[in-house]
Each structure stands twice: as structure tokens, then as C-alpha cells.
Design brief:
single chain, six-stranded mixed sheet, Rossmann fold, alpha/beta, 2 domains, four-stranded parallel sheet, 319 residues
Length: 319
């Protein structure tokens, strides 16, 4: 910080997001939900944090050279965060994304200076429903571009900076903002970085905190149940594939949320709490509400509001 009012670049305002008590959507229930408003980051999602962390760790390690191109597979949010960080730091950035993700994301990344490469979905996949098979096609293209351009691969599904962003920052912020009054943490299964990072940070303070992983109802892969449909509406996760960054030893249990539940709660968040968020945020809060109605009655639950509803205006989320 240059002084109390001025930063040298927008990347320096990533993180330190506010936490709010969702007192209206929980009316009549015993317990509390405390939500980190990650959509108030510059790129409107929690993924800004990992974009910054991965780039800065690569710089410190000397594996990202000045002026080098950065490439990453993305559903849109990590790509947006990387586009912002690369833009202010002077790196070229190529975002590789499935055509199944919402168009707003591609347009935003392009506006931020990224080169956006859109990849066709696998046969049988629907727009707005990106599966692990779709993601595998995106990965092939990302690897090819990385090799052709001698680029640095941000690699959010494998880079430990993804975990560090949430272990060193998001989780610690949660602990301080809640005065340590946390019984439960939960998160939707995306890359696994938020879950593992926050769970590690919180359990360092209190090992008894229970940590739940949220999955799409039709794609309960991580809980070792057979997926009935790998395609679902909760963009940014639930890919039915192994997640190297997900530490299953930190998982207390799994919660399965339907498309309709995620949609319904996202809409309620907007109307009751004034929080305009996306599908995965709806899934997180739906899971928290389920816990408060059952086995975690009376608990204090913390979670993240992952991204902005502005990224889903072309979908049926807010029809």
C-alpha cells in the first residue's frame, strides 16, 4: 500500500472480503450461516485469490519469466483472476475454456486482455452443463498451447498455490472475522483448493471444526457413489474426476445438492439477503441450510459466496 487510501495496482485489493451473517434466509432455524462475499473481489469471484497466489509463487520460484505467456484451463473465474493479475504484471494470458460455460465469462476475460480459446463440448453435453469429459477436451488444448508457446501453465488443479491462497488468507480471514466461533465449514467441490486450504487453516485453530464437501446430486463422485448424470448446472465444479488438491482426510462428510436446490437458494439469496451470486454459491448455502435443519442444528457455519450472478445472466439462473 502506498498510503491508507492508495494501492499500486488492482491486484493488491484481492482478498480481505467482508463476511456477513445470513440472518434472513435462516429465519426460524437454530444456528447461523456466515458468508464470505468473494464476489467483491475485482474479478467478481474467489478465484482472483488463486490467480494472484499462483503467479506470485511462480515469480518467487523463478519459473515465470518477465514477458512470458501464461496459459490456463478455466471455467471462467480462475481465468478472470489470472487475466487481471497478468494484465497488471505485464504477462500475456491465454484462457482455454469449454463452450459449455456462460458467455459472460469469455467476454469478461477478453475485455481484461486475455486471449480466449473456446473448446467444443463432448458429444451429448449441453450448454451450461460442463462435465469432466468436457474438461478433458479443454485440458488437451491447454497442454498443446502451453507447449507451442513455451508458456507457463498456471495449472489450478495441481498447483499448491491454489491451496495456499485459502490456507494463508481466506481461512485465516474467516477465523478472525468470526472471532473463532466456527463449528462447520463447507464448500462446493471445484478444484479442491478452497476446501483444502480453508479446512487446513481452520483446523489449525480448532481441530474439532467439521468440514463438509458439497457435490452435485447427480455427480457424487468424491463420496464414492455412482454418478447418474455427469452433466449438471452448477458451473465451476462437480466434474466427476480425481482432484489432486483435495485432501479427503479433512472431509467430515459429503452433502449432495440438486440443480433445483442450488437455483432456488441462489434466487432466495438475491431476494432476501441482497446477495447476487451464482449456482455454486446457491449450492453452498443450500447445503448449509440442510445441515441446520438436521445434524448441525444450532451450529455456526462458514462458507464462501463464490462469484457474482452477473456471470450467469445468459443462463436460466435468473430467468
Amino acid at each position: 500500500m502506498i498510503n491508507n487510501l492508495m494501492f499500486s495496482g488492482v491486484h493488491q485489493v484481492i482478498g480481505n472480503t467482508p463476511m456477513v451473517h445470513l440472518s434472513r434466509i435462516t429465519e426460524g432455524l437454530e444456528g447461523n450461516i456466515f458468508a464470505k462475499l468473494e464476489y467483491l473481489n475485482p474479478g467478481f469471484s474467489k478465484k482472483d485469490r488463486i490467480g494472484l497466489q499462483i503467479i506470485e509463487e511462480a515469480e518467487k520460484a523463478g519459473i515465470l519469466e518477465p514477458g512470458q505467456t501464461v496459459v490456463e484451463l478455466t471455467s471462467g473465474n480462475t481465468g478472470t483472476g489470472l487475466a487481471i493479475v497478468c494484465g497488471v504484471k505485464g504477462y500475456k494470458f491465454v484462457a482455454v475454456m469449454s463452450k459449455g460455460n456462460s458467455l459472460e465469462r469469455a467476454r469478461m476475460m477478453s475485455a481484461l486482455g486475455a486471449e480466449v480459446v473456446l473448446v467444443d463440448q463432448a458429444p451429448g453435453s449441453s450448454v451450461g452443463q460442463v462435465s469432466g469429459e468436457d474438461l478433458a477436451k479443454v485440458e488437451e488444448v491447454a497442454q498443446q498451447i502451453t507447449k507451442e508457446r513455451n508458456a507457463f501453465r498456471a495449472d489450478q488443479f495441481n498447483h499448491v498455490g491454489n491451496i495456499h491462497a485459502h490456507e494463508y488468507f481466506t481461512g485465516e480471514e474467516m477465523w478472525k472475522q468470526s472471532n473463532g466461533e466456527i463449528d462447520v465449514f463447507l464448500d462446493f467441490a471445484g478444484s479442491g483448493g478452497t476446501f483444502t486450504g480453508c479446512a487446513k487453516a481452520l483446523k489449525k485453530h480448532n481441530p474439532t471444526i467439521r468440514c463438509y464437501l458439497v457435490e452435485p446430486d447427480t455427480a457424487p463422485y468424491y463420496s464414492n457413489k455412482k454418478p447418474t448424470n455427469p452433466n449438471h448446472k452448477i458451473q465451476g465444479g462437480g466434474y466427476s474426476m480425481e482432484l489432486p488438491l483435495l485432501d479427503k482426510n479433512l472431509v467430515t462428510d459429503y452433502i449432495h445438492i440438486t440443480n433445483d436446490e442450488a437455483t432456488k437458494v441462489a434466487r432466495e439469496l438475491a431476494k432476501k439477503e441482497g446477495i447476487f451470486a451464482g449456482f455454486s454459491s446457491g449450492a453452498n448455502v443450500a447445503a448449509a441450510l440442510e445441515l441446520l435443519k438436521g445434524r448441525e442444528k444450532g451450529a455456526n457455519i462458514v462458507l464462501t459466496i463464490n462469484d457474482s450472478g452477473l456471470k450467469y445472466l445468459s443462463t436460466d439462473l435468473y430467468e
